[in-house]
Amino acid sequence: MAPHPIGIFDSGLGGLRVLDRLMHTLPDEHFVYLGDTLHMPYGQKTQAEVEQYVEDCLHWLFTVHQVKMVVVACNTAASVAAHVFERESAQRQPAVPFVDPVTPICRWLKTDARYSHVGLMATPATVASHRYPKLLTDLQADVRLTQLACGNLATVIEEGGGNTAACAELLAGFTGILSAQQVEAVILGCTHYPYVMDQIAALMPEAEILDPAVFMALEAKRLLAETALANPQSTGRDVASVDYFVTAAPDQFYETSRRMPFQALAMKQPTVVSIARTPSVEPFSVQ
Ligand code: DGL
Q1: Which ligand 1 atom sits nearest the alpha carbon of residue 44?
Q2: Ligand 1: which of 34, 38, 40, 155 to mutate, most ligand atoms within 8 Å of CB?
Q3: Which end of the chain has less Cβ packing within 10 Å, N or C?
Q4: 78-131 confidence digits (pLDDT tens)
Q5: Rounded CA separation 202/65 (Å)
């Protein structure tokens, strides 16, 4: 499996930030990026809907690209459908490891960080799942978490980038709420929010801004080494290669992505794919 690609998916272009970190951290790997733009925003969908989207994305990555590892960039997918990842990953032969945004940063908050009160900006679905606070409790992390559901902020960023009046107005409101709570740090618990990290930092100079992507890339590297799945061939590249796929609106994805601060150099036109699941397909297995 070691020469196989790594699959990464998100509901839209937010995962490009995570991909950017992965491409620099793992330059000898090849990535398959899937943006499920047909169903974006996940953050305002029901649990059953998100579970179905996750199953379809995983199935497509496993069967069409035979990925050796999955990085679920999307906080909403990882929070609402954590059990789907665990089940689908374990059903593969061999089991496919996956990296999610929530676990690595929560472990870091437990072991290395020194914050007593942290804020979480996330989609309504991520907040409703209580995935972050539950994991911190399971880890017995000595940190208080204040969650804030940020409405349609992700959609506003996906559709118009981060420099619109609508985005600025939303950010002023959300950061004002967290500032009033006197949090020491803020987790950007949605893949789209790092695109407006500078604005958030300017509005909350008193708090550290924490991006889960940083911790995810390190976790992916660690997992590849642990499972002996790193590509044994040295490519001599500085950054990994990638192919882009979306389920709808490729032009909007491409144009908005090119205006974003990450991935501008490596951005290519995405290919549109249909990932609707065919229930009769047998599970994929690699020798
Ligand atoms: N990518 C999603 C996340 O990280 C946010 C966008 C959406 O609602 O689909 O939570």
Answers
A1: 8
A2: 40
A3: C
A4: 999 999 999 998 899 889 999 999 999 999 999 988 899 999 999 999 999 999
A5: 41
